Amino acid sequence: MELFKTRTHVNFMSRRWIFLGISALLILASLAAFLVRGLNYSIDFTGGTLVELAFSKTPDLGAVRGTLTQAGFHDAVVQTFGGDHDLLIRLRTQAGESSAVGTRILQMFQKDQVKYPDVQLRRTEYVGPEVGKELRNKGIMALIVVTLGILIYVGFRFEWRFAVGGVLAMLHDPILVVGFFAISREEFSLTVIAALLVIMGYSLNDTVVVFDRMREDLRASRSGDVAQIFNVAINETLSRTVITSFITFMVALSLFLFGGPVIHGFATALVIGVVVGTYSSIFVASPVALWLGLRREHVLKRQFLSAKDRNDGATL
Amino acid sequence: MNRYPWWKYLIILAVVLPSLLYALPNFYGWYAAVEVRAPVGTLLPPVASMQDWLQAARIPVTRVVSDAAGNTFFFPNDNAQGLAETLLQNKLPASAQVVLSQMSAEPDWLSSLGGRPVNLGLDLRGGVYLLLRVDTDAVIKHALEQDSGSLRTFLRHQDLQYLAVNTIGPQRLAIEMKNATLAARAQKAVAEHYPDYAVTLQPNAVLDVTLTPDAAKRMKSDALQQAIVVIRNRIDELGVSEPVIQRQGAEHIAVQLPGVQDTQRAKSIIGSTAQLEFKMVDDQANMASALKGDLPPGTALFYGAHGTPYVLYTGTVLTGRYLSNASAGVDNESGQSIVNVSFNNEGTRIFGDLTTKNVGKRMAILLDGKVVTAPVIREAITGGRAQITGFSNLKEASNAAIELRAGALPAPVHIAEERTVGPTLGQDSIHDGVMAVIFGMLFVVLFMTFYYRAFGLIADLAILVNILAILAVLSLMGGTLTLPGIAGIVLKIGLAVDANVLVFERIREELRHGMSTRAAIDTGFKKAFATIVDSNITVLIAALVLFQFGTGAIKGFALVLTIGVITSMFTATMMSRGIIELALGKRRVQKLYI
Questions:
Q1: Cα separation of A248 and A271, whole Å?
Q2: Which residues form the Protein translocase subunit SecDF P1 domain (chain B) (predicted)?
Q3: Which residue of B505, B531, B561 is in closest CB contact with A239?
Q4: Which of A49, A122, A304, B53 has a Cα-to-Cα distance from B441 of 20 to 30 A?
């Protein structure tokens, strides 16, 4: 089967300002959501205690909250998790509080055999306040290092206008995903950061494929119409872009649907990331490179230089 | 003719065959087992009688293996394993260690080739993860206290008259000398004798003695190293199969205890400092005025377990450092829970002298600053053995014995992070992860076959080998598979076909341009190769950074991704090409099924 029997001829570049405008708006909206609403950070970052309990029958949330309040846990947040037999109880850490709180809560429910028969511990997590801060710093550091690493690599392999376009497109994607997390109130955990890094890698992977073809076509072509050559290159790689993105999207969806509640946030970020990552490699990266005034000579320069060097060596 | 050189096929075989072989152990599953071990110096009942107990309780046993360390019983399921653990724990003496463990069910020939299944992370296996912070500042503080004491002695011995030695900062002492000449002489002497300190002369005959950053760093690092040793000893005493204890940064220790469910006990045994001290009781002191804060010089107020106050001389006469062994038991006469301790040679001498000189007086025994007991010394004890009473039950006594045997921590530790995963969640996560792999894989395989027909099947084979290669490398490296790691495999299935898609699309394109089949394949692979490398390196950068910064489960994800990027570059290019060339053989091909 072939989706693209003949080559497509979509003129992507003529509408580049529209796409750049849409992206700019989405980025602004994401940043605004992030600044105004903030993220629903998991205890990885805030520090605190989390207890997941499995009940033998659907527990009454109100009664559970009552039991907790009675025991002095006034700020406990209770929610169902995964199936409706599981409850997630979250507590902010107070100064000097220790990891023993989780065990205390478990024992409290286990004692009340009548109301809560057969309570089972699924997991407890305790993250001290200093660790939370450290994990947050580490996460931010990781994002910065990946950005720099990729910037250096692409800058080294491509012309700088390509590099800037690629990196802007790469940054575009995690920003939109963070925006989604800010708006949806979906929990933002360490695994989401991992997903963001992968999205950045994926986004650039997609972009590089398109850029590679643009460079090839620019070198082969005699015409100086860069926008036209960009269009050709995007159309040439379009079938690959669509197929790969579709497959990656489907495996991310498989994680989202079957991977279970523990990696739900991770899978959510991936699903969104694949979509925006594909979009940005076509509609952000190339327009930016064009906008920065990329011309045919820029990608030829290196060849000319090396040819000249060889000549110099020979004549001397 | 087959244009692909024979040596490339050799490389392909050299990668594919080991991948299959070393991925194999992962498909045999696990036996549920219980290990019974006896610490050195204790004895176990014969294996036959343990088997009799299990038989009497109708617990099915599939196999028993005995070796020098003890016996391992294999069970057909987790339920039998759990029942057997409880039974053995109740029937065996308290000193015996009963450990739940999982044994790979792979055949012997596979393990003799070095094959082993991949380690499962705590999030899949269940267990406890602890991140401990060692209070290294306390080590410095302690060192400074000791050195200020020894400095005074040193100055006296050297006839360098001083007025005072004061602690003026966390790493700083100040010595006030009698006059400037003495100060100058003292500076030289102290600097020579205390190389860990920087000694500078201040106005008014004052010496500033500051711990050098290097020395402070070394002390902290030593303390951390020592804490790791002590914690490892304690965990060994606890009887955990395959614990992981790692240093993390300058002051953290990460501890992973797979399969442990009694978090509370694990935490209290690992976390308590276990500083055993012997101090003399001041029996003359007036308790009423002491409680008001009016204490005789050189004494301080200490408390027992139930808040009983004691006035003790602050000097420690003996510490846990001089112990050679400790064991819990029950006193035959009183029925009380006790800990029997024996001292090493030096400890025996000190303890003998002490008890000889102080017959009739009371000596307090403190554990982590709390008075456990304060018995009257009835007679000189020169045999190097003592009995500590005052524990409320046998469990408390045996915990204390474990801690004393393992030695004291050089500094207090705090739990900075703790994650416990129950066994049911771990099993659910494995199930969910496997489901995601199956569905992801199924989709990709069907899609590729449908879309690229014969070439799609080759891509499917490449993906399959790729997954097996990831498993094989992970197993051989001793890496850990976590739930995010499984997610990484699923994601990798998607990313790995990208390389195949790139090649196949390029071949189709060249065919459309009218190229012959062979030339199209050749050009397709050649032109796509640079792109494949470029695009994979970006993912590799992200994966490597993640590996560097990530902890625990995230590291497992980064590891899978890193291995996957490298293996997929091989399977999608060299291996796919090899199969294609092999399939086409020497024939002239008119049409490609792509």
A1: 9
A2: 224-283
A3: B505
A4: A122
State how beta strands B299-303 and B309-313 pair.
antiparallel
Query: Are the C-beta atoms of B36 and B88 separated by less than 8 Å?
Result: yes
Q: HSE (CB half, 13 Å, CA atoms) of B500?
A: 35
Average pLDDT (B303-313) is 85
Give the phi and the psi of residue B339 in degrees, each rounded to 5. Answer: -120, 125
Q: Are A121 and B551 inside 8 Å of each other by CB?
A: no
pLDDT tens, position by position, B456-509 = 999 999 999 999 999 999 999 888 899 999 999 988 888 888 999 999 999 998
Cα separation, B476 vs B389, whole angstroms: 50
Look-up of token digits 């209070």: B135
- Whether residue B263 lies within 8 A of chain A, CB to CB, comes out as yes
Q: Which pLDDT does position A302 carry in this prediction?
A: 54
Q: Which residues of B touch A121 (CB under 8 A)?
A: 420, 422
Here the tokens at position B172 are 């700083």
What is the per-residue pLDDT for A310? Answer: 42
Contact B494 A120 (CB under 8 A): no
Residues of chain A with pLDDT under 50: 303-316
Tokens coding B225: 């190293």
Is the pLDDT at B43 greater than 80? The verdict is no
Cβ(B522)–Cβ(B506) under 8 Å? no
Point out the domain boundary residue: A127, A161, A196. Answer: A127
- Residue A101: CA atoms inside 13 Å, Cβ hemisphere, count? 28
* Structural domains in chain B, sorted by start: 6-24+422-584 (1.20.1640.10), 30-105 (3.30.70.260), 127-257+410-421 (3.30.70.3400), 274-408 (3.30.1360.200)
Could you tell me if B134 and B407 are in contact, meaning their C-beta atoms sit under 8 angstroms apart? no
For residue B534, give the amino acid letter. D
Measured CA to CA, the distance from residue B350 to residue B382 in angstroms comes to 9
Q: Are residues A58 and A147 in the same domain?
A: no
Give helix B483-512 / helix B423-477 axis angle, nearest 10°.
60
